[in-house]
Amino acid sequence: LRIILLAAFSIAALWTLRMRTIGSFEAHPVVRSAVGNRLPTPSKCQGGVSRGLQHGGIFYSLPGSRPCTRHIRQPKSSGTPSWEDLGEMANVKETLRDFTVRKYPIAPTTVAGRVVEESVASSPSRASKSQPVILYRDTNAWCPFCERVWLSLLEKDIKFEQYLIDLFDKPEWYKELVPTAQTPAALINGKVVWESSRILDEIEEAFPEPSLKPTNDQEEELALRVKTLTEDELGVKGYGYMRSNASVEDDAKTQFQEVLSKLEAELAIFEGPFFLPHFSNIDILVTPQLERFSANLGVFKGFSIKGNPEYPNLNAWFEAMDEKPSYKAVKSDDRTLNQIMSKVFRLPTASSEQQPVVDEKHPRREAAAKLVANYNSVSADIAKNSGVEKSEKNRAAIDTHLRRVVTALLKSDVGTPSKSASEAAIGAASLAFLRNRVSSPRDMSAEAAEEFRRAVDSVLLATYDGGRAQED
Fold first, then answer.
1. Is the CB of residue 118 less than 8 Å from the CB of residue 454?
2. Whose C-alpha in 189, 222, 317, 363 is 20 to 30 A from the C-alpha of 465?
């Protein structure tokens, strides 16, 4: 009897110790509210799909993966709210619903509604019956010419759908549908149109209200001058300056400044911040390039457009654009644009300059909601691509730090720093990877991306608990 009682006591003690160490478990298909439950986190992976928030609102989708379920152990002592609690705090369902309707404010990744099936996108006759407009654009939402069409559709509040084209693996049917095989292209009432300026004209003809056209001869003449300047000089001189070496940099800078001075003069002709007395397709045409040059040149060439007293009209134009809901939905943030430029032109890595302060409430809520809604895919992407060794323990550390980011976004609280040196190291590596992975407008709006990175940085600063984390 003593032996039996001793054995029972030992088993009970071991079980209690185990539960205190790894937390209680729930084998249910949903996340439970109690911190410390075992969270079934299926890595919702779709084969053959590009990464990004372009399919079903999935933050990251991993090509070639099979659906699987990963169970993450969360220590009760973490003090970080569960995903279900965070979802309630972020009001995910309501927040993301705001971003899927065709009214402002809109999340750029869901603004076009659902992504149409390939069988529909590849058949103009079939597509035109179900939807008057389909936009064919790049998967990462980086294409400046796609941005023009996107901005026009939003400004006119036109209902449209989209099909995303992998620029490195274009479908054969797309090459047959679009002679140039470039993006963007658009299907408008059964007619396939390509090249952004032609698409803008076709949209204006098919959907005349609200009008984005010039209204008289004087406006027509100015619009033609600015269009010619944009297509023939702005891009050529801007990127020429961007890529110039020391021997030709001064001359390239002078040529680009001359283009800016011409735009500055055109903006002075009519009253108001835009090129015409009203917002028009001319503003849309020039937007992507001015947006990119204002972000890139200050970092890579030390030349600023925004805040430059030489260009007061251009600065007033930037300020007016930043107030437009349609532009807020499609614009990128400076950090994303600088990372792209660094990769495309093999320029030195962009500096991590302080981003401008944006509204604290709405962008942070959007960023939090996006992460809560897609944390399974985010966690799976980190585990696969960040270089962190795959293990149950590491997945738990990743999960904890992702929840700390959401808490920082919603409550400005970075949570309890890690006491384990190994957990802190895994968390730091994971968050550093995620900070550079997030891209706007692919994953979230520019303002939300800025707030997201701030939250990640705040958690990173607290990850090591002032250096007091202990070795395991």
1. no
2. 363
Q: Phi and psi for 328 in degrees, rounded to 5? A: -55, -30
Count other C-beta atoms under 10 Å from residue 242's C-beta. Answer: 20
Q: Is the pLDDT of residue 194 over 50?
A: yes
Under a CB-based contact definition with an 8 Å cutoff, are residues 373 and 402 in contact?
no
Tokens of 163: 């099909």
Cβ proximity of 143 and 117 under 8 Å: no
Instruction: Find where tokens 């003593």 sit.
Output: 2
> CB-based contacts of 107: which residues, under 8 Å, 6+ apart?
96, 99, 100, 329, 366, 370, 444, 445
Q: Find the mean pLDDT for residues 191-208.
A: 93
* H-state helical runs in 161-311: 172-177, 196-206, 217-229, 235-243, 249-267, 281-300
DSSP H or E stretch at residue 185? strand 185-188
Query: Given a cut of 60, is residue 63 above it in pLDDT?
Result: no
Q: Mean pLDDT for the chain?
A: 75
Long-range contacts of 233-237 (CB under 8 A, 24+ apart): 233/259, 233/262, 234/259, 234/263, 234/286, 234/289, 234/290, 235/289
One-letter amino acid at 226 equals V
Would you call the peptide bond into 40 cis, given omega within 30 degrees of 0 as the criterion?
A: no
Each residue's pLDDT tens digit, 406-446: 888 887 777 777 777 888 888 888 888 888 888 888 888 88
Please report how the helices 392-411 and 362-373 are oriented relative to each other, as an axis angle in degrees rounded to 10. 160
The gap from C-alpha 344 to its chain's centroid, in whole angstroms, comes to 18
Which are the contacts of 267, defined by CB distance < 8 A and separation ≥ 6?
273, 274, 275, 313, 314, 316, 317
d(CA 350, CA 338): 6
396: left (phi over 0), alpha (psi -120 to 50) or beta: alpha
In order, the DSSP letters of 64-77 are T---EEEEE---GG
Query: Going by DSSP bridges, is the β-strand pair 133-138/161-165 parallel, antiparallel, or unpaired?
Result: parallel
For residue 138, give the nearest of 169, 178, 166 by alpha carbon.
166
324/433 Cα distance (integer angstroms): 32
Question: Per residue, what are the HEC states of 88-123?
Answer: HHHCHHHHHHHCCCCCCCCCCCCCCCCECCHHHHCC
Give the least confident one: 152-161, 340-349, 388-397.
Answer: 340-349
pLDDT reported for residue 58: 31
Residues 6+ apart with CB under 8 A from 262: 229, 233
